[in-house]
Design a protein that fits this description.
about 140 residues, alpha+beta, Lipocalin, eight-stranded antiparallel β-barrel, about 40% strand
């Protein structure tokens, strides 16, 4: 009788303590996607003499989608000859978590991301300033809105 009672008591403690287990920590990919999450304003490009305004990228972590506003201004600045930015679509990260691949767009290499300071640097290779020119490395500086 005592063994049965002790077994039942031990089983009860096991159920109670296992139900209090912390949730699993997010994976490194989930953490990086969460860092990207938000609306980022493109403020400058290394190939331009003036700052950019009115162009932003919103990364949505919950469904890994992105959308771009001000795409015409980005194209007018000759920064989208390879259509690296599309109006919207899904995105994914490579296995090293340093390249964002945009469906309906291209690949953006993450140079720096710091959500605390609101800084993000993305780069890609594209012809500049004309579509017929040789590809050059274009680095975008973004600020978290």
């Amino acid at each position: 009788m005592n063994i049965k009672l002790l077994s039942f008591l031990a089983l009860s403690f096991l159920v109670i303590f296992s139900s209090c287990k912390k949730d699993d920590d997010p994976s490194p990919e989930e953490q990086k996607i969460e860092e990207l999450s938000g609306t980022w304003d493109i403020v400058s490009a290394n190939v331009l003499d003036e700052d950019l305004t009115g162009i932003s990228i919103n990364f949505n972590a919950s469904n890994t989608t992105y959308s771009v506003s001000g795409l015409a201004a980005f194209t007018d600045a000759n920064l989208n000859h390879t259509e690296v930015l599309g109006a919207s679509g899904s995105f994914s990260l490579n296995e090293n978590l340093d390249v964002v691949t945009l469906a309906n767009g291209g690949d953006l290499t993450i140079g720096n991301i710091n959500k605390e300071t609101g800084d993000l640097t993305l780069s890609y290779s594209a012809p500049y300033p004309k579509a017929t020119d040789n590809a050059t490395n274009i680095t975008l500086s973004l600020k978290l809105r």
